[in-house]
Every structure is written in structure tokens, then in C-alpha cells.
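## Example record

The block below lists the input lines for one assembly entry, exactly as stored, with component labels intact.
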Amino acid sequence: MKGCLYAIGTGPGSSDLITVRAARLLARLDVLYAPAGKRGGDSLALSIVREYLGAQVEIRERHFPMSTHGDEKETLWDQVAEELRQDVESGLQVGFVTLGDAMLFSTWVFLLERLQGRIPMEVIPGVTSFACISARAQFPLAMEQQSLAIVSCTASEAALEQALRQHECVVLMKVYGRFGRVRDLLGRLGLLPHALLMAEASLPTEQCFRQLHEVDGELSLPYFSTILVNKQWLAAPVEEVA
Amino acid sequence: MKGCLYAIGTGPGSSDLITVRAARLLARLDVLYAPAGKRGGDSLALSIVREYLGAQVEIRERHFPMSTHGDEKETLWDQVAEELRQDVESGLQVGFVTLGDAMLFSTWVFLLERLQGRIPMEVIPGVTSFACISARAQFPLAMEQQSLAIVSCTASEAALEQALRQHECVVLMKVYGRFGRVRDLLGRLGLLPHALLMAEASLPTEQCFRQLHEVDGELSLPYFSTILVNKQWLAAPVEEVA
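Predicted C-alpha cells for the full assembly:
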């Protein structure tokens, strides 16, 4: 049997939001590469897929740097890429798990650019965090005739303002540590009634804030925090029918 | 047992790209609403989920208008919403399938705005068409520090140009019937080396074009045709390692 590398998007966090293709594949892998967890526990990506792994799967936890910049990080990515290449060339079915979708804001791309065309590979797409947030909050990402921008709050305030002015719908990722400033910008643009904030969507620790003008600007947020804006939809609390 | 409405994103087309949550749910529904297919066959959404349906599931095919505009269409949506509401209130587990993700460019939103807060409901997110295209083509949607815009080619040329100038990555949906003009715009902006076109991703009829300057502007495309642009990535053909 020929070896192959599979980059697997795990979806946003809940184990049952991975695809059927990913679940079937995880059962028959030889090796799975996963980010190293903190304090000896599983990383989130590994904890999502663990229930689907076949008994034969060897888990190899590796430290994956979050960015490719700097010589040291380049060397680390080179080493992981070389390990993967050798595994595949020796005929193994090799998986690599990555949160959300594999091709959107994922460190998988640092391996793709090193290995593309050199070994057989397949990318398994996943549900993005913002699709999950939109579903959980019942707040549409974008409707027909609208355009959608997905930007990180690490961008300049000018870039965020431009996106918020020019698109009807905006996903603001990485709100973590920047909530007060982003909330003020939304207020200045009159967009607070059309914005909501969600943290850790689909996990037991999920939190949703719909009246952002009432939220403390110093609010301490988890790392996975995202604001959705839709100019044609109101974020007012939905009366839950139980 | 209490009734509930489930809006289920089916993903882009291949049956195994639905989520595990959707697959499990489809097995235990009482009723599934699906778009009516053409010429008596299944609609694409129904064909994707059919293998997961429990034997007890009653399929109700309905004609869903593609837009909510016009009195006649409003009336049609009102009727479907009323049917769903009555089913749920009578205690049924009711599904509604929609291609891709349920909250992005989906007609599900016309039902959501009519039923939100009135009946128990849950939205199951799905893999978007563009995540699947990106995975199939091994062409990243966006890398860290990049921003991504998702726009329809039905927008004005000025709006498309603005998105292409201001974002490092752009998904151009609904290329169908507009390929020549969009290709010319990409050429004028120097983006052809960074763009690829895919039609019917994940289906047996999938087609991918990577050298858009060589493609006939009058190319006849299927309805589901999308162009991806990533200014940091080259779309040149990948040497496939078999």
C-alpha cells in the first residue's frame, strides 16, 4: 500500500463536528501527528479526534510553532516536514490534525509549502469556527447579495474600519485582549446592534454576548473569541423556546 | 418527546463531507424537508444525505425559491415556515437540508427569520464550498496575517475590484456566466498567477483550471463555479505524486 499524508481539519471543537470522511480516516491511519498539549494533557485538536482513532494509530505529539517567522521556527517546520515525508515514503498512512478548516489560518500551510508535489497528500476540509459560532448564535454569517470579510483583530484599526465600512458582514477573529478597542470602533460605526461576541463555540465553556454596549471593555476573554457583524440582522437576545 | 427543527448544512457535495453530528441526526429524524429536484430526481442536497436517513424518515420535497423578493416568494416561504412550525409543535423531529453551510448564502435564513424564537431549533454547521475547493486544489484560502473577502460575481465590477485590491485573499463565488469579465479584471490587477477556478468541487464532475490566462473567456461553466485568489500563493499546476 502506498503512503499518503492527510491534513485533517477537526472543526471548531465538538467531536461530532468533524466530517464523516475524517472520522473514517482516523480509524485506519498508521500515525497521527498532533500539536503537543499543555501540562501533559491532550491538545484541543487531539482531544477532538481521540474517540475516532483506531487502536493501531501511533500518536506523535510535536511542538508546532504558531508562525513560520524566524530561523528557529523555520528549522522546526523543516524537521516536522522531513519526518512526515519519511513516514509517507515508507508506506504509512499519516494524519496531521489542525483545528477548524485546514486551509484557513492554519499552521498546516507551513507543511503544505514544504511538501506539496513531493509526496501524495490529501486535505480534508473542516467546519470553520465562525460557521459554528453563527450556527450556535442563530446569527447569519451572510445572506445572498451580501459580502463577507474575515479579518483578524491583530490588523490595524484602519484596516478593521475599512472592512467594516465596505462589507455588509464581517467576522472579527482574535478579539482576545482587544475587546475594548474593537467594541469602541463598532460603536463609532453604529454597528453594536448588529454585532455579537462568542467564545469557545461548541465547547462546554461556550459564552455568547449579544448586547456589546453593556459589556465591560476590560472583559477577560478566552483565546478563541470572535465577533460577528451582519448589518441586516439584529443581535438582540433570542427568546429561547425550551 | 419535544419537537425540534434542525437546519442541516450538507457540506459541498460529497456525502462523506457532512459532519458526524448531521449523520447521526439524519438517522433519527421523523421528517426531512428538502428542495425539490429537477425532472423527478433528487436535489443535490437530498442526494448528499440520502444514505444517512433512517427508514422512518418521511421526505417532503418542496419548491424553495432562491430569493425572498416578491410577494409570491414571500408567500411560499411563509407557507413552508408554517408547515415546519406545525410539525415541530406536534412533537416531530424535523430536518431541513441546505447545501454547504446553513448560515452562509443559504435560503435557510428566510426560514430562520420567520421561525426564530417561536419553536425550538438547532443549526448544524457545514463545510463550505470554498473550504472544499481550497482543500481539493491544495491552495490556501488565507494564511495568518492575511484577510479574506468572500464576494459574489453578481456584485458590480467596482465592488469586485475593491475587494481584490484590499484583501490578500478573495473567494469569488457565482462565476457562472461571468468568467470572461472576471478573468479580465484579474488580469488587469496582475492577479492571474495567484488565481484558480474550480467547478463542482468534491463531485465526480469536478474541474480545476490553474492557468486562467490560457482559458477561453467564453468557457461554459457549471452553476457551482468559484475562483480563489491568494496573493501569497502561486496557482501553477502542482506536479501530482501518484
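The helical segments of chain A are 20-28, 44-49, 71-89, 108-115, 129-137, 157-166, 179-188. Chain A touches chain B through 65 residues (CB under 8 Å).
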